[in-house]
Amino acid sequence: MTGTDKATLTNANLTKVPAITLGFWIIKILATTFGETAGDSVSMSWLGETTPDAPTSFWQSGYLIGTLIFGAILAALVFVQIRARRFNPWLYWATIIASTTAGTTMADFVTRSIGIGYSGGSLLLLGSVLASLLVWRQALGTVSVSSVHEPKAELFYWVTITFSQTLGTALGDWIADGPLGYLGSAVIFGALLALIALVYFRTAFDRVALFWAAFILTRPLGAVVGDFLDKPHDRGGLELSRVWATLVLGVAIAALIVMFRQKAAPADAQKGV
Prior knowledge:
Number of strands: 2
Strand content: under 5%
Number of helices: 9
Order of helices and strands: HEHHHHHHHHE
């Protein structure tokens, strides 16, 4: 067997997503927070959606334009990710960040510009996530990350992730807009994630379901933390600079990628994950 044959066999036994570790979840939460502040920086600050000069035309909406910008970046990164021959942590997390940033502006567009509200947007997007998972399972027989090593599974993976990121933004905004506020909502979502972790370690409950539940819930946690950082004082936020918050989070994510040195998840060792 030649060196090329060995490399091909090795790649075939690996997915193009990272192994699910504590480091993965820490970076994922930071990435979702980054997506919230970065999306707000563009749609609200740069494009003026929350300023006195906010555009009144539906087609000039900062949320719509922001969604088109980040959607194009996401599509390009997903294309490169699918074309890549092996797992690359920088490419993977860049794509995750693009999905969470696009999810921020997309959720704001659905709930505010279209006007169906947080509850309507959350229900619509929950249906989209469930439909994506159902079609994926019907097509390939599994929605486990262990299947993400061929183009069709990768496409389903990234579509589902984008819907889940968008759902998380709408859900986080919906809960935080109530009496709990940003910090109270963060406690609720953090407690739900802790409960999922407890179920994972103490029971034999379906690992795939637990993974996707945790993956979805990290997004509203990141959303409410991001909002807490950059929203005005009179709305319960710290009113920090969105740009600076985004830059600090970006540096932290890059440092953690280097620190944790992630490896690709085996294609056959994470059945049920």
